[in-house]
């Protein structure tokens, strides 16, 4: 479960830029949220749970290390930090491929909760004697 998982990869386009010409931080945050949920679903499934419906409850830490530019191929790598009774914390690492360079540009930790889509209530992610 400690291996990195490539949850998403995309190319950054001009429509995603801020007033300085680099990619708007909110665009990166949106991709981080999506990638973390994709990786979280996979991690729960790999741990023996059923494929969950996850909703974001917190972004604990985001660190923007370098600007992302138009034309960068950006990868979102995920790794579970902790799987609790009803929640999962995911580390999302963001790399930008710029020509032959690969730059570590952003990192975030995101917390998701598994819910029952019918009731919108939290449900256990993994079945077990003490997890329900």
Give a description of the structure:
It is a single chain. The chain is of the alpha+beta class and 132 residues long. The chain has a single domain, classed as Roll (Thiol Ester Dehydrase, Chain A), CATH 3.10.129.10. It is built from 1 helix and 6 strands. A hairpin with a 3-residue loop joins strand 3 and strand 4. 28% of the residues are buried.
Count up the domains.
Answer: 1
Q: Low-confidence segments, ≥5 residues, pLDDT <50? A: none
Shape: elongated
Oligomerization state: single chain
CATH architecture: Roll
In the CATH hierarchy, what is the superfamily?
A: Hotdog Thioesterase
Structural classification = alpha+beta
Helix-strand topology string = EHEEEEE
Name the average pLDDT: 93
Largest sheet geometry = 6 strands, antiparallel
Question: What is the level 1 CATH name?
Answer: Alpha Beta
Secondary structure: helix percent: 10-25%
Give the radius of gyration.
Answer: 16 Å
């Amino acid at each position: 479960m400690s291996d990195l998982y490539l949850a998403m990869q995309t190319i950054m386009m001009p429509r995603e830029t801020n007033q300085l010409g680099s990619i708007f931080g909110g665009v990166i945050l949106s991709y981080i949220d999506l990638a973390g949920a994709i990786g979280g679903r996979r991690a729960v499934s790999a741990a023996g749970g059923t494929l969950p419906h996850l909703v974001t409850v917190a972004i604990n830490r985001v660190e923007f290390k370098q600007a992302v530019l138009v034309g960068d191929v950006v990868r979102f790598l995920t790794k579970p930090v902790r799987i609790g009774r009803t929640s999962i914390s995911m580390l999302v690492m963001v790399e930008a491929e710029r020509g032959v360079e690969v730059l570590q540009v952003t990192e975030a930790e995101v917390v998701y909760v598994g819910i029952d889509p019918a009731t919108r209530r939290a449900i256990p992610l993994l079945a077990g004697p003490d997890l329900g």
